[in-house]
Fold 4-hydroxy-tetrahydrodipicolinate reductase.
Amino acid sequence: MKIALLGYGRMGKIIERVALERGHEIVIKTSEEGGYDIQDADIAIDFSVPTAAFFNIVNCFKHQVPVVSGTTGWLHNYKKALKICEDEKGAFIYASNFSLGVNIFFELNSHLAKLMNGLKQYTVAMEEIHHTQKLDAPSGTAITLAESIIEKNDAYGNWKLNEASIGNIPIHAKRIPDVPGTHAITYNSPTDSIKIEHIAHNREGFALGAVIAAEWLLGKTGVYTMKDVLNIG
Ligand SMILES: NC(=O)C1=CN([C@@H]2O[C@H](COP(=O)(O)OP(=O)(O)OC[C@H]3O[C@@H](n4cnc5c(N)ncnc54)[C@H](O)[C@@H]3O)[C@@H](O)[C@H]2O)C=CC1
Ligand SMILES: O=C(O)C1=N[C@H](C(=O)O)C[C@H](O)C1
C-alpha cells in the first residue's frame, strides 16, 4: 500500500517503521496542514494533533482516500465526520487505542461493568497515566472505557476529570515523563477492591494495530471499528 502519514511525530515515526517492515511504501509524511496531494496515497494514517485531525480526515473523505485515525481529543466533531464520510462514500476507522491488548481490555472492562451493575456497595474509579507531552486529558482510551461502563452500569451517567461525585465516574489523569500509556479501573467496596489494569510497555502495539487496520480497510467503504478489524467482542 502507498501510505500517507498525517502526523509524523512519536507515533508517525514508529508507524513508518512498522509499515515498511510489512512491505508498504510511505508516499507522504507531514506534520502540517496541506502542502501535499492526498490522492498520491492508497490510504492515510492520521496520528496528528486534536486541532488538525478533523481537517485531515475530511480531506481524505473528499478525495475518496480511506483513512485510519488514532488522534484523540477531537471527538466533539466525530458525528460530523461520520456524516461527511457517508455523504462522500469514504472509508474510516477511528480508535482511541489500536493495540490488541487494549482492545481485549475494552472487552474485559465491558464484561466487568455488566457484572458490577446493581452492586451498590462498589464505586468505580479510573486512573490513566501518560507522558508529559500529551496534549489531552483524560486520554481517549479512558473516555472509551468510561463510556462503556456508563452503557453497562446504571449507577453512572457521566465521567468527570479528577473529580468524584455521585453518578459520575472519576477519571484521574496523571502525567509522568516517558510513560507510554497505563489505564486502571478499580471497583472499591468497604470490604475489598477489584482492579483491572493495562500497561503499555512501549508504542509498538499502537503502531502495529494502526497498520493492520489500514491493511484491513483498503478497498472498503463505510465506517468501522477495531472490533471489526480484530473480530472480537
Ligand atoms: N489511538 C491510539 O492507539 C493512539 C493514539 N495516540 C494519539 O495520537 C496523537 C499523536 O500522538 P503522538 O505521535 O504521540 O504526538 P506527537 O506530538 O509526537 O505527534 C503529532 C504530530 O502531528 C503534527 N501536526 C501538527 N499539525 C498537523 C497537521 N495539521 N497535520 C498533520 N500533522 C500535524 C505535530 O507537529 C507532531 O509532529 C495524539 O492525539 C495521541 O493521543 C497516541 C498513541 C496511540
Ligand atoms: O497520547 C498518547 O501517547 C496516547 N494516546 C491515546 C489515548 O489518548 O488514549 C492512546 C494511548 O494511551 C497513548
The chain has two domains: 2-98+204-230, 100-199.
